[in-house]
Amino acid sequence: MAETTYEGADAASGGLPQLDVSTWGSQIFWLALTFAVLYFALSRFILPNLRDTIANRSDRIADDLDAASRMQREAEEAEKAYEAALKDARAKASNVAETTRQSLDAEIQKELDAADAESEAQALVAEGRIRDIKTAALSNIDNVASDVAGTLVRELTGKSVTDAKIRAALAKG
Amino acid sequence: MAGPMEQFEIDSKVDLFEIAGQQISWTNSAFWMVVTVAAIIGFFLLTMRGKLIPGRMQSMGELSYQFIADMVRDTVGPEAMRFLPFVFALFFFILFANLIGMNPYAFTTTSHLAVTAALSFFTIFIVIIAGIWKNGFKWFGIFAPSGLPIAIMPLIILIEIVSFVARPVTLAVRLFANMVAGHVMLKLFAIFAAYLVTKGGVTALGAVLPVVGTIGIIALEFLVAALQAFVFAILTCIYLNDVYHVDH
Question: Which residues from A are below 8 Å from B11, CB to CB?
């Protein structure tokens, strides 16, 4: 196995070892080989693995964010439903109060009307009695007056006057 | 004492076979390339837990994925995600090769023009092949920006072609030159420190300065190691842009 001594060639040219073209073949050969192995390992195994891991994580994060926003939406909807129910209940309660108040008002009005009607009837009855008594009293006064007048005429003149004449005279007077 | 360029020497361990007259050998460079790829695969195997809530290692793997995926998505678009493994492999190969090269006694495979040029030309060929595959003959429209007066068109087309051809060259030289410059500087400072120490006496105390400089450069080189991997990857993305967006 003959070993090439590149140092010899280098000393002869007196330049940089990099410019010794006789070593280029080996360098490029090994570079191509090692670089190909590296490229293969990276593109077949390492990079897909890293890419999948990163993609999985960002998928998971996106999923979690989706779930979070969905839950937030649900919570907002629940809150809205709760508020609607509350509003409904409030409306119903005020409705009940209103109807109760109205029915009570109507009842009170009815009672008042009934009381009014009764007192009015009683007033009417009383008025009739007063009128009757008054008429009776007035007619009694006529009788008394004619009696008194007849008596006065008899006592003063000694003449008796008929009842009818006195009444006519009184009615004239 | 070893010269500053000795660290870049390709040390052939075993000659294997020949391809088209080129001797293929098992070298220190080949060994460190295998180490680089093994380290990357090992690192990601540790991160592949697939848990919903990631641990530290898994987080690192996922951050790496997100980093490169965002780079590809932002510079080219979601349709270019099929090139993600390629950009990913480029970035991590260069990053790990650079970082492994920072270790003492390790060999920096990316400090060789052959490696960086092979990577950059391969990248540009992929852009060309994918561009023609996807757009057909219309892909060559990237050399002729629309909405320009016909008079300056030939000049613009020439400039566009030159800049396109310059892409793989600049891509290769940028990475190569950065790595070489950093390692040479480190070596020079270290050699200078060792030289001062061997002198002994008062001058040995002066070795503190280059040692402090070495520490600073090491910190800088770690930055450069990561930065050059990033630059290579993002430029690849920008060039891949031509595959999908012919009208520019």
Answer: 6
> Which of A10, A22, A49 is facing B48, going by the closest CB pair?
A49
Nearest by CB to residue A39, choosing from B5, B14, B86, is B86
CA dist A141 and A119 (Å) reads 33
In a domain? residue B1:
no
Restricting to B residues 109-138, those with a Cβ less than 8 Å away from any Cβ of A are 109, 111-115, 118-119
Distance of residue A73 Cα from the nearest chain B Cα, in angstroms: 27
User: How many residues are given for chain A?
Assistant: 173
The per-residue b/e assignment along B144-155, b for 16 or more CB within 10 angstroms, e otherwise, is eeeeeeeeeeee
Q: How many CB atoms lie within 10 A of CB B4?
A: 16
Report how far residue B9's alpha carbon sits from residue B109's, in angstroms, rounded to the nearest whole number. 11
Complex ipTM value: 0.88
Q: Is B104 within the bounds of a domain?
A: yes
Which residue from A27, A41, A57 is facing B29, i.e. has the nearest CB?
A27
* B67 in contact with chain A, both atoms CB, cutoff 8 A: no
The verdict on residue A139 lying in a domain is yes
Number of domains in chain A: 1
B87 in a domain, yes or no?
A: yes
SS3 B106: coil
Identify whether A15 is part of a domain: no
As for how many domains chain B has, the answer is 1
pLDDT at B38: 94
A27–B176: do the CB atoms touch at under 8 Å?
no
* Minimum Cα–Cα distance from A7: chain B residue: B9
Q: Which of A65-69, A107-111, A161-165 has the lowest mean pLDDT?
A: A161-165
Tokens at residue A118, please?
A: 């009764």
What domain range includes position B200?
A: 6-244
pLDDT in tens, A29-82: 899 999 999 999 999 988 888 888 888 889 999 999 999 999 999 999 999 999
Q: How close does chain B come to A64, measured CA to CA in Å?
A: 13
* Residue B160 CA, distance from chain mean position: 24
